[in-house]
Amino acid sequence: MKKYCFLLTFLLVSRYVSAQQNVPFTLEDRDRLIKIEQKLAEMEKRFDERLSQMEKRFDERFIQMEKRMDEMRADMNARFEQQYTFFWIFASIFTAMLVAVFGFAYWDRKTYLKPIENRVALLEKLAENELKSKETSPNVWAVLKDFAKIDSRLAEILKQYNIL
Length: 164
What we know:
The chain is mainly alpha-helical. The protein has one domain (25-160). The protein is built from 4 helices and no strands. α3 crosses α4.
């Protein structure tokens, strides 16, 4: 590059000096100019070749970078897909656990209250039978009052009939 600048400067200065001195143009000068033009043409040709080689290398490098970016994008998409799948699995497990807990609570309540409801129904029938017969034995009333202390529902029923 320095050679080109030097040569170009040399040519401009020599033309300027020659124009001022009014030196006659000789055959040697003409031959020198022809040689310089040939060298400049060769240098321009080499410069163009190097430039085209650099363009090819840059194009190849850009293609490689683009392929690498595509691979990275595909890897990222696969990773996001894995995370999305994991999220759905986790949500499904949580939903199943929630359904199982509510189902167990419902079943437990039902099985826990059933024997108590049966006992209360039996005691209600006993109380009705006693009231219908109007023969009240003190033992039945004592049993009912004692059981009403334990069972609040029985206590409410007995209060309805003004037994307590």
